[in-house]
Amino acid sequence: MIVLALDTSPLPRRRRLPAFLMLAVLTAVGGAAGILVAARRTVDAVDRVPKVAEVLSPASSNIDNYLLVGSDSRASGDPNTGDTGGVTGSRSDTIMVLRYDKSSGTASLLSIPRDLWVTVPGHTGKRRINAAFNDGPDVLVKTVQQELGIPVHHYVEIDFSGFTTLVEALGGVDVCFQYPTRDLNTGLDITAPGCYVLDGTQGLAYARSRHYQELRDGKWKEDPTSDLGRSKRQRDFVNRCLQSAVAQVKADPFRAGELVAAIGTAIRIDDNLNPLDAASSLRSAVDAGLQTYALPVDGKTIDGNAVLLLAQGSDAVLAYFRGQGPAPTPTT
């Protein structure tokens, strides 16, 4: 299972965004035997995250769960200006969970909102789940496992430069817009309805967009669902990246070499993860298409904090991602 985290910062800052792009590339590579030697060399050079492997769940007989994390590294500031706004530390910017079913060979993707109100190990009281990452990736893993009961078998993280580089390596990602669309915070600017190939910078602006506005009936209207709306758009973007990577390598296996090279130093993974083995297992599942899910939540204000609590329907989704229940109806 893979988890990704979302950002609610009012100002654009340097991001570590979804490691799903690493997954997209390596999933495609899994079927390209001609470049596996080069791929192994790249994988051997990937940075490993300390202390994470020791808190991961034991291997499961029925599912593999990968926690994918994109982080908001505030010390580095705005990717365009370098402005930190006086804020330091890190927050998880995107949290998703990719679940691979070993018996059926299918895969599913779950978004976990960063404002989910949980208990973080080592702290009294509750706080937003994205704050767990500030204490280290291992604490975020423990929080997901203890609070949601979702076993995490592997951990993957990607940074802002990695996000843009990998989207560029894919040749951009096709996204369709029904209305002129913008986000003044991230720089997203779509002037007319239609389908566009978003490059790395535009893809980043789209994936990060929390203040997503559409021009309807002559007025700019902001998506009232905020992070939940962004989660939906990110799930769609994940699927498009994965499908693009697989399709390109199917058409030209040597493209995989370029995609692997694009990974470079962009990712960090746990000590136990063999990305090529994972890619080999996941390739057919991704080729068939991912089932996507949103974690059902209700908005509340607690002690002045606007937070999200688990809502009706969450038990069925969590049971499925724990490997303990049938697949519920996918979320769009």
| Strand percent estimate | 15-25%
Evaluate the radius of gyration. 19 Å
Helix percent band: 25-40%
**Order of strands across the main sheet:** 1-14-7-2-3-4-15
Tally of structural domains: 1
Mean pLDDT across the residues is 80
Q: N-to-C SSE series? A: HHEEEEEEHEHEEEEHEEHHEHEEEH
Low-confidence stretches: 1-18, 74-89
Distance between the termini: 19 Å
CATH topology term: Nucleotidyltransferase, domain 5
The CATH architecture term is 2-Layer Sandwich
Main beta sheet strand tally, sense and closure: 7 strands, mixed
Q: Quick one: overall form?
A: globular
Structural class: alpha+beta
* Strand element count: 17
CATH class: Alpha Beta
Number of helices: 9
Question: Can you tell me about this structure?
Answer:
The structure is a single chain. The chain has a single domain (20-169, 234-321), classed as 2-Layer Sandwich (Nucleotidyltransferase, domain 5). It has 9 helices and 17 strands. α1 packs antiparallel against α7 (255-263) and α4 (160-169) runs antiparallel to α7 (255-263). A 7-stranded mixed sheet has the order 1-14-7-2-3-4-15. It has a 4-stranded antiparallel sheet with strand order 10-9-12-13. A two-stranded antiparallel ribbon has the order 5-6. It is an alpha+beta fold and 332 residues long. 32% of the residues lie in helices and 25% in strands.
